[in-house]
């Protein structure tokens, strides 16, 4: 266990925060520091074909150790951390034999990680927790995933009696700013399918995510002196308000769960002459997703009609752009890749928690690029903030799941012989 803790800590103390305002890949130069370290480490444990491209995407191979054909499988995680919270000077704390009580992350600032608020903590009584010092995020998202993949590969290399096919490993930058899959060379990776190790608690297995679109809606107006405005002024802010009122009530992120979709207004700036409203549209169901996008256009048309005479041209201009799609469509035809992961967990006495993701993963984009890619737990909790923590035992379980999936994939092929 100490080995996995040491490895994890050696990654999280390196700042790899990504930056959505940067145009380069990786978005921040500092991501190279960990990327280069990972390349050396993959070589050192005995991985083959270790490559890093000019955008810092890392790939490596563990060759097959059987004499029959087995599908090539991949394991993927990202080495950047979220720009939502400070990722520099991470000082991890190790809580051994956790007693189920409050954990003082930072006495000076009175920052407490408490099971009264974070109830999940109680499942980890007696385990070894790795936490922050209350001033940064931890970066278990997704350096836990990297730790697990490297450790699993090392274990397989040192344990040749476990039989497996060819395994590919992929580490990416910039997942947290939605670009991790953008420059991922699926052809070069050359796997039949893969798993992102980027979920949260032990047992998570996900192959359904949202269909996602973003909309920018511009409302025009006419500014006239308020004293002489009767019949002349058009206040774009009030039109935007009218638009928002026509969105279905109760369908916001704060009022939905599970498979329920939503509209989420996340930005609004305005003056009398012009108001810009930005919202995102999310739905697991493709038909409902398309319907939601049509509703945006329908409301806009209705308002445009109302102001056609007075304004002379369209007063509402909509731009709706698709962002990503539900990977379920790409994974269901190859459902056995989920079944193998589920079987692996069950054989390890881990209860699979299969649920739809209310968001997207790199795996959803990769699935549409031709690499079906469900998501598996990496073990951490409370991502993107100071309360982030990961139990070492959960990382160890993820290592075992990776090893077991590799083993089962080879075993199922040999059974076909
Ligand atoms: Zn992540």
UniProtKB/TrEMBL annotation:
Binding site for Zn(2+) 1: 78, 141, 198
Location of the Peptidase M20 dimerisation domain: 207-307
Protein name as it appears in the record: Peptidase T
Species of origin: Flavobacterium caseinilyticum
Coiled coil: none
Protein origin, superkingdom: Bacteria
One family name in Pfam for this protein: Peptidase_M20
Active site, renumbered: 80, 175 (proton acceptor)
Obligatory cofactor(s): Zn(2+)
Molecular functions per Gene Ontology: metallopeptidase activity; tripeptide aminopeptidase activity; zinc ion binding
Keyword tags: Aminopeptidase, Cytoplasm, Hydrolase, Metal-binding, Metalloprotease, Protease, Zinc
Any single GO BP term: proteolysis
Any GO CC annotation of this UniProt entry: cytosol
């Amino acid at each position: 266990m100490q080995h996995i803790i040491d490895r994890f800590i050696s990654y999280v103390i390196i700042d790899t925060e990504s930056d959505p305002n940067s145009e380069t890949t990786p978005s921040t130069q500092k991501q190279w520091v960990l990327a280069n370290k990972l390349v050396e480490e993959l070589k050192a444990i005995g991985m083959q074909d270790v490559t890093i491209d000019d955008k810092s995407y890392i790939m490596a191979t563990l060759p097959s150790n059987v004499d029959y054909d087995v599908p090539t499988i991949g394991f993927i995680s990202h080495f950047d951390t979220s720009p939502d919270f400070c990722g520099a000077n991470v000082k991890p704390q190790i809580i051994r034999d956790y007693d189920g009580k409050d954990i003082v992350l930072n006495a000076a600032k009175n920052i407490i990680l408490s099971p009264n608020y974070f109830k999940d903590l109680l499942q980890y009584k007696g385990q070894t927790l790795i936490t922050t010092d209350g001033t940064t995020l931890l970066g278990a998202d997704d350096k836990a995933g990297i730790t697990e993949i490297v450790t699993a590969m090392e274990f397989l290399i040192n344990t040749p009696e476990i039989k497996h096919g060819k395994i590919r490993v992929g580490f990416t930058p910039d997942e947290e700013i939605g670009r991790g899959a953008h420059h991922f060379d699926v052809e070069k990776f050359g796997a039949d399918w893969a798993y992102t190790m980027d979920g949260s608690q032990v047992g998570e297995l996900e192959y359904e995510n949202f269909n996602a679109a973003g909309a920018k809606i511009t409302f025009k107006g006419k500014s006239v002196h308020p004293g002489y405005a009767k019949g002349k002024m058009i206040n774009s802010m009030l039109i935007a308000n009218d638009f928002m009122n026509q969105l279905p009530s109760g369908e916001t992120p704060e009022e939905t769960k599970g498979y329920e979709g939503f509209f989420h207004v996340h930005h609004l700036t305005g003056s009398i002459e012009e108001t810009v409203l930005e919202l995102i549209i999310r739905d697991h169901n493709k038909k409902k997703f398309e319907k939601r996008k049509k509703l945006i256009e329908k409301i806009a048309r209705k308002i445009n009609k109302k102001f056609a005479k007075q304004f002379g041209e369209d007063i509402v201009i909509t731009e709706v752009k698709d962002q990503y799609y539900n990977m379920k469509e790409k994974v269901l035809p190859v459902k056995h890749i989920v079944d193998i992961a589920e079987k692996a967990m069950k054989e390890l006495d881990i209860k699979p928690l299969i649920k739809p993701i209310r968001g997207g993963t790199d795996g959803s984009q990769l699935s549409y690029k031709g690499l079906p890619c469900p998501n598996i737990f990496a073990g951490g909790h409370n991502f993107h903030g100071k309360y982030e923590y990961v139990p070492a035992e959960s990382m160890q379980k993820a290592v075992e799941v990776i090893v077991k999936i590799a083993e089962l994939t080879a075993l199922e092929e040999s059974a076909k012989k």
